[in-house]
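Request: Give me one sample?
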Amino acid sequence: MAMSQLKTTIGHGVDDIPSTPGKFKPEKSSPFFFNRLRWYTSLSKLTLWFFLSLVLLLFLFFASPSSSPPRHHLNGGAWGGQEWERRVRLSARVRSTNKAGHTVLVTGAAGFVGTHVSMALRRRGDGVLGLDNFNDYYDPSLKRARQKLLERSGIFVVEGDINDEALLRKLFDVVAFTHVMHLAAQAGVRYAMKNPKSYINSNIAGLVNLLEVCKSAVPQPAIVWASSSSVYGLNSKVPFSENDRTDQPASLYAATKKAGEEITHTYNHIYGLSITGLRFFTVYGPWGRPDMAYFFFTKDMLKRKQITVFEGPNHSTVARDFTYIDDIVKGCLGALDTAKKSTGAGGKKKGPAQYRIFNLGNTSPVSVNDLVSILEKHLK
């Protein structure tokens, strides 16, 4: 740029500029020429310094940390930022005047059981923060409707996955949770034939990720989580007892829940996490999952469609121990209230911690044939 200006202003030809830089000499030396040369050289240096300074300022501006926390974008939303943190803290704040109020992280909060448990916790004044990934295992609009129900009660449901370690650690940085109610899971038995990896991803990998974050938390929370009656598998003895064998799972779903029990026991033993597992027996009630038998049986009956009823081993009648959602909620809250504190801190165990497993159901199985008869009677 500077050489071009010299050429144009002074009027020398190309032959006047030697191939070796810095060797240019005019034919006639004069004070006027050298003054002009010094002026153009100074101007070029100023332009260069201005350009370099501008680049440096722009670099510092974009490289410097923002005054507000960063936002992390997900498929359905984003987390992070001052407003997001404010909503998290507000939702997790204990409302009860009782000093024993819990601060609970509920995973799977927009699910069937998660919604009812979250509402019950809020009604009694506990701090509640929800977490749900709003997947499409069934129509997500049902979860969105439950989310609105929770929001009307002041419960914020963070949209995110339990496999997102950064998100979980951020939640524990913002809120010191006393308890975790872990209800997030890939449910259903037959769906495993279509998407087996989803069960491993949620029921095993997601559980381990959550336990990893909980073990490092200060303080460590007490954990109550949803296992399943399906762990009894091929065991034909009824009614089931917590001491019965659970080493013959009959589905991938059951196998992942059994694996979850072994994994939680390991974290309890090594890291001092207080853990309670609840083996749910077929849950029914308002806001239930549309893939449950009583829902799709009802739907098919109303549409005058034929109903398919599956038989058990050796052509036996299939029966389920149906448990109403309110009873499940009572069991979940009871487990929270009686859970002892974890004994570890920052990933180090300081003493033996509580470990429990309970059946959450009743002793009155209902055959699927009887269920169909009851529905037919009331839908006529």
Notes: Confidence is low (pLDDT under 50) at residues 1-29, 64-68. DSSP finds eleven helices and 15 strands in the chain. The first helix runs from residue 2 to 10. The radius of gyration is 33 Å.
